[in-house]
Target: Catalase
Amino acid sequence: MSNKKQDQLNDMKKDNDGKALTTNNGVKVSEDENTLTVGERGPSLLEDFHFREKIMHFDHERIPERIVHARGFGAHGEFQVYEDLSEYTSADFLTQPNKTTPVFVRFSTVQGSKGSPDTVRDVRGFATKFYTDEGIFDLVGNDIPVFFIQDAIKFPDLIHAVKPEPHNEMPQGGSAHDTFWDFFAQNPESTHTTMWVMSDRGIPKNFRQVEGFGVHTFRLVNREGQAHFVKFHWKPVQGLESLVWDEAQILSGKDIDFHRKDLYESIEKGDFPEWELALQIIRPEQEFDFDFDILDPTKIWPEDQVPVQKVGKMTLNRNVSNVFDETEQATFHPGHIVPGIDFTNDPLLQGRLFSYTDTQISRLGGPNFNQIPINRPVNEVHNNQRDAMHQMNVHKGQVAYHKNALNNNDPHTTPKEEGGYEHYQEKVDGHKIQKRSESFKDYYSQPKLYLNSLNEDEYNHMVQGFSFEIGMCKSIMVKQNAVNQLNKVDRKLAEEVAQNIGVTVPETNEEVQSESKDSQLTMEKFNIPLPGHSVAVLINGDISAETLKSYAKVFTANKLNYAFVGKHPKSISEDYGITETFNTAHPTLFDSLIVLSDDSDINPSIEEFAELSYKHNKPLVFNQHAAEKLKNAKLDLYGSGVFISDEPDTIVKAFERARYWDR
Model:
């Protein structure tokens, strides 16, 4: 982060060490434990100004949570472009390879309230604020490249449908209920995104291992005024991983903060997550060369047709100092752009350009939300906007209008050639109508493309996702209509889901007849590096400190997170002591399992731990004694991803695959 941005944030977070307690007006306080009363047992007095100020502030501490994306967590970092992209854009942060740009990223779920679990099946928000020298650029995206609707006028309908049902305020944090699936069946444009959410993409393993997408089509504009269509991507260096559904459900109870804790602890340990910024670029003359409309937010640009170019890297390297001050008060807006980036006529994007400012005024009490430190640009702000709620600046001078002669017409405008923003001059001609473009009305080809691109395991997980979600609906009509929609994508998928939820498949096969694939859509294409994964080492009986030390050495060398788990804590050393017990640890909280045992009878908790880890397809390593003791457990000791060895470095071999789906 630049020193300028860091100083801005530090200005608001003064250290209290050695400081006297004062009121908000600066008066030193002599008593903060008892209110002013008449005698020791008499009535409290309203003249106790410190009490009144303190309780008043507490009564108003909470601001309205976001209507969507309420459950969020953020971190600071930096971005650097690999090479000069001035062929495409004049944006300073994309044309200066020697420049580091501060960023702030907020990850979130969409449906749930601020107190909902992290691991629900949902779209994840992935919003990035670039503090460029030319102003703020907000890339406000998701971890899924498409969206449920094509026009912003339908956004309230979508959210009303997916949110808890108003008559009973249930369910919280998920889409497994009648109103969402009724919306799905009645609005075929939502089919593509719903396919993604019902796949493994809907239950990511953590924030560090998600892709990010700008969703919309934007324009890059160079200094000569030449424009290219662009889609923005974030490609995780850590690879792409998901939870299994049973695991995600258990985690909602075991650790409601599972995702945010993972991100926070990774950064605290110095395991900084990284993403590469990647661009898909289409020349203006190619706009109509595809069998999809490039402005349709429910469509991807298949990477096999429009290759992705990796152009820079973002690293998250600092946690927030205060979640409310920074994460909760951060305001993102797709309309925050800088010279060299412009909009297109995507109707969903156009609507968002209004909506985001409107909601910030409601949440943060007025139009001056951009003066909150987390939202301030690093460059200076000068304009004639004045007053309003929560004005933090003291403006000086007589003049607050443009044009003026009294102040030499300052603040003055800046020509495009000197860095002033100028919109791309697109010629637009047409009648005022309320009608969707015919080029937007292919609702099923890309869902079929996505389905065809999945491997067998991913397909089976999608069937399970649809079966659980639609199966939770109460209305037979809603279930039937949802299956009828799936029948327009893929007959086999519709038949399997219908059988699982107890409805029939339409007599007519209406599926899209296509074998088209995109090789970049399956999650198996991602290499998953070893560092950052976690290991639970279960101790049964008396295992020597030297043995634990040898395992700890391997874990540390390979940057694996680990915990030694036993019946009781045992402080051998801070590096290899038994810090967790069978009461505090759980297999869903770890990526792999090692069981070390002597000749003692196996603890039943270890057997349960091993069986659930096996069920969730995780790598398992047992020493010889442990394997003998677990021979009657509900797992195949010689199955895929199960290793019997007394060597500590066996875990490295076991992690050649993060999940053994072929069990």
Remarks:
- The first strand starts at residue 72 and ends at 81.
